[in-house]
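#struct-pred

JT: dropping the chains for the assembly here, can someone run the whole complex?
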Amino acid sequence: MIKPTITDIANEMGITPSTVSRALTGSPRVKESTREAIIRKAEEMGYERNVMASNLRRGFAKTVGIIVPRINRQFFSNVISSAESVLGEAGYTVIICQSHETLEDEVKALKTMRANQVAGVMISHSIQSVNGDHILENIPEDVELVQFDRVFSSLPGIKVVNDGVKGSYEATISLIENGYKKIGTLAGYLGAELFADRKKGYVKALEEAGMDIDEDIIFEDSILRETGYRSALKAIERGCDALYCAGDFSALGAFDAVREAGLEVPGQFGIIGTANEHFTGLMSPRMSSLEQRPDKMGAEAALAFLEAVEGKKEDRTIEIPMELIIRQSSSRKQ
Amino acid sequence: MIKPTITDIANEMGITPSTVSRALTGSPRVKESTREAIIRKAEEMGYERNVMASNLRRGFAKTVGIIVPRINRQFFSNVISSAESVLGEAGYTVIICQSHETLEDEVKALKTMRANQVAGVMISHSIQSVNGDHILENIPEDVELVQFDRVFSSLPGIKVVNDGVKGSYEATISLIENGYKKIGTLAGYLGAELFADRKKGYVKALEEAGMDIDEDIIFEDSILRETGYRSALKAIERGCDALYCAGDFSALGAFDAVREAGLEVPGQFGIIGTANEHFTGLMSPRMSSLEQRPDKMGAEAALAFLEAVEGKKEDRTIEIPMELIIRQSSSRKQ
DNA sequence: TACAAATATACAAACGTTTGTATTAATTGC
DNA sequence: GCAATTAATACAAACGTTTGTATATTTGTA
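RK: done, full complex below.
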C-alpha cells in the first residue's frame, strides 16, 4: 500500500471511513476505546491525512497567507519569522507573497490567497495602496484579516501597530532634553497612518516643550538614504541642529549630509532614526533609533489570528510599544 | 451564484464540464473556437479554479516549499525574496518553514511540505543536519528537490551553491597582494561543505603564494561575533596580521579584537569577511567582504526548478560566482 | 420486560476538478 | 458517396475526506 487512506484503515479494521475520520479529527461522536484503536492503527499503517481532500471537503485550508511589500526587508522578515514560528507551532502552514510595493502585485497576492482558501491573511500593505477597498473585494468575509504596521483603520479585522505617536514623541523629547534647539523631521509619506502618527508625536513633543512648529523643517517623503540626504542638507541650511527621522535609511542620509556640512554628530547635530536596523548599532557614531519590535509584532499578530479563528476574541487593535534605543548619535550637546 | 464552478459554466453553455476543464487547462482536445467561448464565459461569470479540488484530483499542488534555518537572516530573506518573485510570476505559490537550525524542526517542515503535496522543495539545511537521509525519507521521489547554499552533494536533484573555493581564494589572494604576511582564517563549521570549501580556497591561495599553512591560525567554529572575537584574539597573539573570515559576524568580532589590541585596520591588520551583510558597507572603516549574491541564487534556484518540472533539464549543480567587494578593511599595508 | 433516550457506528452524498473511455461529428481518401 | 479515419465532445468514475442522516447498540427507567 503506497499511501494509506482512511478507507484503508477502515477496511483493515472492519469499520467505516466516517468513524475513522471522526476519530482522527477528535469528534466526540466516537467511543474513546475505538478512537485509541484507530489512532494506533493509523500510526501503524503510517497514515497521513490528505490535506487537499480535507481542504476541498471543508472549503478552507489550515493555512495563513502573509503579504508584505518585500520579504527581504529586515523589518518584514522579522515579522514573518516570528509569525511563522507561532503559526507553525499551531499547525498552520504559511504561504508568502510580495507586493513589491505595487497595488497590482498586492491584488495578485490577494487572489493567490483566495485561490488557496487561506483561513487568514496577514498583510502590511504596499505604498501604492491608498485605501483598503481592494482588500475587501478580494478577501471573503469568512477569512480572518490581520493587518500589521501599515494598516487601514477603516478595515475590519485585527490590527497590530506600533504606538508611533508615543514613540516619536519620546524620541523628540529625548532630543530636546539633550539640548537641541531646532529639531526638524524627515517624515516619510504622510498619506500612511504610520508616518502621520510619527509626525504627530514629533509635533506633540515640540508643542509641549513650547517650541515652534516649523513646516519648513518637516520633510515629507524622505525615506531613502538619498532623499534623506537631500532633505537633511536643506534642514541644515535652515538652521536645524537635530533631526528625528521616521526611518533609519533617511537618518543615514542625514549622517551623510551633516558630515558633508562639516558638523559633528552628536554635539553639533543630533540624529535619531526609526526601525533600529541592524547597522545602526554598528556605525560610528552608533545611531540612536526607535525599535519597532517586529518580532513581537509578528508573534502578537499570529496569536491574535489564532484567538480569532478559535472564536475567542473579536476584532481589535493591538499596540506594540516602541523602544527608544539611545546610542551615540543623539547624546547631549556640549 | 456565489462562486461558479466549471459545472456551472458547462450548464450555462449547454456543454459538459470535462470540455470546460480541458478548455481552461489548455488541452489540445478542444476546438479553438469553443475554447475561446468558454474562456469568455468563464471571465464573464467570474470563474476561478478551485485549487483544492484541482490539487486533489491531480495529486500535487502548484506550490513549492522553501525551508531555511531562519527567514530573518539577510541572506535567506534575500534568497526567498527573489525566488518568490520568479515562482510567483510562473504561477506557483510559495510556502515557507523555518528549521530554526534544528533537525527536529527541519523534519517537521519536510512533513508539512509533503502534506501540502508541493511540487518542489527548496532547502538550505539546518546546522544540525549532518547528512541528507531525513530529506530523502520525507520527500517523495516525484518532488523536485532543490538545495541551495548549504547542500549535501550526495543527494539527488538541483544544487545551487557559491563557488566558495574560488571566492575565498580570491579574498585571500587579495590580502596577500596587499602585503599581509601571516594570514589566518575564521573558518566556520568545517563539517559543512560550504565552510570546508572556503577553507580550501584559503589554503590554495597560501600554497600558491608559497606561504605556510599553519593549523594554529585556522579557527574552526568561529561564526558569531563573540566566537570570532575570541578566535581573533588568539590569532593576534600568534602573530597574524590579517584574517579571512568565512562570515561577516565573525569578521566583526575580529574588528573588536584588533581594536582592543590597539592595532589599526587596515594597515596593521587586514580583514575580509563573507556575505556582504548590509552593515559591512556602513562601518568605518568599511569592511571588505565576499558577496554571495543571494538574489541571484534564489532566482537561479527557482528557474532551475521550473525547468526541471517542465522536464527540460535534469539534475545539475549551479555555481554562483562570489563577488569580492573591496572596501577599506583589507587595503594595502603601508 | 419493555420502551424511551442516549450513545456509537454505518451509509451515502458531496466538495470541484481531472481524465480514460465512449460516443458523436467532421474530415479525408478512394 | 461511403467507409475509414480523425477531431471534438460527452459520459462517468475517481481523488480522499467530511458530515447529515439513518441505523444499530447500549443504557437507564418505569
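JT: nice. Chain A touches chain B at residues 48-53, 55-56, 61, 63, 70-74, 77-78, 80-81, 84-85, 88, 93-98, 100, 108-109, 111-112, 114-117, 252, 277-279, 282-284 (CB under 8 Å). The first helix of chain A runs from residue 6 to 13.
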